[in-house]
Each structure stands twice: as C-alpha cells, then as structure tokens.
Amino acid sequence: MKLSPRLLRKALTSPAGASLKTRAMLLMLSVGLSGVGLASLIRSHHEASLGTDQVLGMALQDLLLVLAVGLVFMLLLENALLRPLRRLAEQAHAFDPTQPPPSWLEKQDGGPRELQQINQAFERVQQSMGAQLRREQNRAEQLRLEVEQRSLALEQARLALESAQRELASLSRHDALTGLANRREFDDALRREFKRAQRQQGLLALAVLDLDHFRAYNEALGREAGDAVLRQMAQLLADRFKRDTDLVARLGGEEFGVLLPGCDRDQAQDLLEQLREALAALAIPHPKGSATSPRLTLSVGLAVFRPAQTYLSPQALLQAADEALYVAKHAGRDRLSLAA
After folding, report:
1. Structure confidence at residue 60 (pLDDT)
2. Distance (Å) of CA 205 to CA 179, 200, 261
C-alpha cells in the first residue's frame, strides 16, 4: 500500500491529527515511508538478480530501522517539547488572577530556550496583573472605607435632624420653662374636646388659674425666684391632674389653664380647691403680699360645658372661665369663682 502526499496532508490537518504529538507521529511515518521508498528505488536495479524473500527481508529491515529512529525521535520530542507545553497549557488553563501571584505558575527550570521565553512572558504577565490586582484591591478598600465613613456621617446627620425636629415640635407645643403644654396646644385641645362634648352631649370643665400679685413677687425677688415658683406650680398641676384626658397648660406669664373632659362642676371644683390648698401648704412667702395673706396665693375661674348649660363655641367657654377669674380677683383673690 502506497501513502500519497495528499493523504499525508489530509491526515496532518484532520481533527484526529490536530494535536502536536499526532502531527509529529504522522510526519515521522511519512519520513520513514519516504526513506523506505528511496531505499527501494536504490535497490530496484538489483531486484532482478535477488529473490523475492531477500527483497522482503531488506524492506522489513528498513522499516524496523525507521520505526526505531521514529520512536527515539518521539521520546526526545515528548521530553523536550510536548511535556513542557502540556504543563504550560495546564497552568494557563488554571490561571486565576484573583489568587496571589506566587500560586499562578510553576517556574520552568531548563528546557528549550523558547519554552523559557514563554515562561518568562507568563511571569511578566503574572507580575503585572498581580500589581494591578493589588492596586485595585487597595483602591476598593479605600472606597469601602470612604463609603462607610460617609454612611456613618449621613446616619449621624439623619439622627441629629430627627432629634432637632422632635425638639422643635416639642417646643412648638410645650412651654420651655415648665414643660407644660403651651397656649397653642391648649387651644387645639380645647377645640377638639369641645366638639367631642357637643357631639356626645358630654361634660367639659375648663379652669383658668392665676397666681396672685405675681408681678410684685418677681419685682421683689427677681426673675429666677419667679421662674422657680412657676415650675413649682407646674409640678402641683401635673401631680393633681393625671388622667390621660386631662390637659394642663401655661397660657402665659403666671396664668395657667386646665381642661378636664368628663368632669362635672362639683368634681372639677373639688380638684381645684385641693390644688389651692396644696399651694397654700407650700407657704411660699410673698414679700409684698396682702395683710391678710403674706404668702403666695391662687385665684381660679371655672366654667363647665354640660347638656343643661351649653356654650356656642370653645371661645365662649374660655371667655366664661376668664370672666369667672376676673370675679375671683375682684372678690379679694385666693378663691375659686364659678361662671354664671
């Protein structure tokens, strides 16, 4: 059987001969067969004088020699070229840029100069990518720290803003000195409770309280002493009116207001008289008090919304309590007066 050049080219370029080792084997076989063919041509002029057995024996010897040479050639090719290339291919396939550089490649010692150059090229790529990876990792860490710091600053700013908003809302609804509700909160609660009492035909007691001769007290003892008395009065009010529906407010200066939903006139009057007695028990001296009362006293005006005696508006109920307070002041102070 003859092996034509076209058949050799087909074998070398076919998928079966795609690897370097396969192509080397086919090349060796073609060289060997060519050698056998050349030897046959040289000996062709002797074929007439030689017997058939002798010709076949010489051809077999040539073939065995070619195979032996090819085997030696393949072993040398395997050790010098194919094995290092396979190792480089495996290492390149396992190449992972996310791993530390020392674990990327095994260093190739010895071997052909071309393989050493390839290995050096891999090492340069390794070093370059390792340095770039470290730079990117450092940059990523810096960005992460910066993001954490800015997130922390934003969270602190948010908490501070919420705290300021709560404080502002509290200041807009509460008196800064006493901590009681202020006039705005009192007016809103009065409108709300008045509508509820109208709708349910219920009870709503409203009292306006005023410390007697308080301006003179401030002038005699100073503002700090006056503020201390106002805080004491606020504490007395908070201790006496503890229901969830009760509202105590500082209306301005030495004037206070009390809303008592669901309280009739007698209940509200009893609670307010107890408050006057509690203030009297403190026996706060008044340097410019009246001859009959040298201590600080309290005047109260009380008005009650009830089905038998209704008021047209919250303002009308508040005005009735103010008028009752005016009567208490002009009747000698230190007393409670009921609205007509």
Report:
1. 77
2. 22, 15, 6
